[in-house]
């Protein structure tokens, strides 16, 4: 094993950072290129959503299983396999000419990339000295915050400047560099294939079925009209079956695939719930800003990505002071401060209208970004200190899975709010407008055709205006809900365990 905090250990941390950045970046990098990809591979808009959903489902299945594969194969061999698999899957996506091949490649990307997120935190927690661990956590936290918000701008730039194929091919040189870091920075560990005799197969099957089906439900539920759909009912049954299998594994397996009981502990349970809330905001806000700017301000993917990327700026500027903050200030105060900023930043956007443009988001995005920095990056510290060192891998898997699952809940909430509240606000705005009202008459006069046609054209224009204004108000409702979510999560901070100032793990 490498000496804690030595040069090779830092190479291992660099490998974990690059891997985590690749995985988080690819979770959102296709969003900007999705319309172009759909057109070239012959997929409809509804079919094209599976290009994103396939990645998220595979990723959330692998994240909590990464600890098991780490123990089974050894960290270096496991990450080498995942890196090769991620690069090959990326090439398949870049070369695909049909939807089925694209989805196959995205499943591979999500599955192999999902392993790189929790293992990055495991490397930091186990290979760095206590005094250096804070710097490693800052690097890991930076990738988690910046990856999802950088995805749209990177994807938009590569698509508009070169071709959508390059959003996948960019992983080839990154993967080669990552392999070099893994070979140098991580020591070889002999695989423990004897573990297969005691493997918790019920737990593995249950975890995969429960999380995979639940993610599809959250991603596709609104489009499928929720429980009016046979597919959603079947997926719900599958998710509940998976939960039962997971519980059976917890009760009867000699070595459960993951120790779920740590969620019942006060400190880690609070981390888990807070990760759900912050994950909802992280992925939800990164999704909703481009949607608003694309639909109501006529921004292209690259322009909207630039506005969204502002969220990551505070994390970049504050990364250097992370170790000092963690050493001098109680982590609970830092996380609570972050949630306050996060909530206030979202509430600042609860006043947007149809005339709001990208420049109007700059201040609120900086506030949200600073809130994300404190809430999410210091939550990483709370997660690693909440459990004994021997459970660090399980804690990392559950913490990161909760963040991604929270993101799926956040996206589902956005979809529901936008559809229902757009209709609600549009109807309310049109209530006082009749054919004899001044607004309708003015519109008919401007139309300039015969009275019947003029009134019909005016009605159409007014309806479009009401829908546009209603859509803006629905987006404002989304920000309001996320702001309240962050603020009501603050009391959970009181249940967290303070991080020891020397950075040591609790026993």
Question: What features would you describe in this structure?
Answer:
This protein has helices spanning about 5-30, 35-40, 45-75, 75-95, 100-125, 135-160, 165-170, 170-185, 200-220, 230-250, 265-295, 300-310, 315-320, 320-330, 330-350, 360-385, 390-430, 440-445, 450-490. The chain has 19 helices and no strands. Residues about 505 have low confidence and may be disordered. Helices cover about 75% and strands about 0% of the residues. The protein has about 500 residues and is mainly alpha-helical. The longest helix is centred in the last third of the chain and has 39 residues, at about 390-430.
Features:
mainly alpha, 507 residues
If helices are DSSP runs of H or I spanning 4 or more residues, what is the number of helices?
19
Helix content: over 70%
Structural class: mainly alpha
- What is the N-to-C order of secondary-structure elements (H for helix, E for strand)? HHHHHHHHHHHHHHHHHHH
Euclidean distance between termini CA atoms: 21 Å
The stretches of 5 or more residues where confidence is low (pLDDT under 50) are 503-507
Instruction: Please tell me the overall pLDDT.
Output: 82
Radius of gyration: 24 Å
Q: What fraction of residues sit in β-strands?
A: under 5%
Q: Can you tell me the overall shape?
A: globular
Instruction: Write down how many β-strands occur, each being a DSSP E stretch of 2 or more residues.
Output: 0
Largest sheet: none
């Amino acid at each position: 094993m490498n000496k804690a905090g030595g040069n090779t250990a830092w190479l291992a941390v660099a490998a974990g950072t690059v891997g985590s950045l690749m995985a988080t970046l690819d979770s959102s990098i296709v969003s900007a290129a999705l319309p172009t990809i759909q057109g070239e591979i012959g997929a409809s808009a509804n079919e094209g959503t599976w290009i994103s959903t396939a990645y998220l489902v595979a990723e959330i299945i692998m994240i909590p299983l990464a600890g098991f594969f780490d123990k089974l194969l050894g960290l270096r061999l496991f990450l080498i396999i995942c890196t090769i698999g991620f690069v090959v899957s990326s090439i398949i996506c870049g070369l695909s000419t049909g939807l089925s091949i694209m989805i196959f490649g995205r499943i591979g990307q999500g599955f192999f990339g999902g392993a790189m997120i929790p293992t990055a935190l495991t490397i930091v927690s186990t290979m760095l000295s206590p005094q250096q661990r804070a710097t490693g956590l800052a690097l890991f936290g930076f990738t988690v915050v910046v990856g999802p918000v950088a995805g749209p701008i990177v994807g938009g730039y590569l698509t508009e400047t070169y071709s959508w194929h390059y959003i996948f091919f960019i992983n080839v040189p990154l993967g080669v560099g990552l392999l070099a870091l893994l070979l140098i920075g991580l020591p070889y560990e002999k695989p423990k294939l004897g573990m297969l005799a005691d493997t918790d197969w019920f737990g593995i099957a249950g975890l995969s079925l429960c999380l995979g089906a639940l993610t599809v439900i959250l991603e596709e539920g609104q489009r499928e009209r929720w429980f009016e759909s046979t597919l959603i009912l079947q997926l719900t049954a599958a998710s509940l079956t998976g939960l039962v299998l997971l519980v059976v594994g917890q009760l009867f397996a000699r070595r459960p695939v993951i120790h779920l009981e740590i969620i019942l502990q006060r400190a880690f349970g609070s981390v888990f719930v807070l990760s759900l809330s912050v994950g909802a905001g992280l992925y939800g806000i990164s999704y909703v800003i481009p949607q608003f700017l694309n639909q109501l301000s006529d921004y292209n993917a690259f322009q909207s990505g630039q506005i969204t990327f502002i969220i990551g700026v505070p994390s970049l500027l504050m990364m250097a002071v992370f170790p000092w903050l963690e050493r001098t200030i109680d982590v609970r105060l830092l996380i609570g401060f972050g949630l306050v900023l996060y909530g206030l930043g979202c509430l600042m956007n609860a006043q947007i209208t149809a005339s709001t443009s990208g420049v109007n988001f700059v201040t609120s995005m900086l506030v949200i970004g600073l809130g994300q920095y404190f809430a999410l990056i210091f939550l990483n510290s709370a997660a690693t200190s909440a459990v004994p060192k021997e459970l660090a891998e399980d804690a990392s898997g559950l913490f990161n899975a909760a963040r991604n699952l929270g993101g799926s809940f956040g996206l589902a909430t956005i979809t529901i709010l936008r559809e229902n509240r757009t209709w609600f606000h549009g109807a309310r705005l049109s209530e006082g407008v009749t054919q004899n009202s001044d607004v309708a008459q003015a519109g008919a006069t401007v139309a300039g055709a015969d009275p019947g046609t003029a009134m019909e054209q005016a009605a159409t224009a007014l309806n479009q205006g009401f829908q546009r204004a209603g859509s803006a108000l629905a987006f404002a409702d989304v920000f309001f809900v996320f702001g309240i979510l962050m603020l009501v999560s603050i009391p959970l901070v009181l249940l967290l365990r303070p991080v020891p100032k020397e950075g040591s793990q609790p026993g």
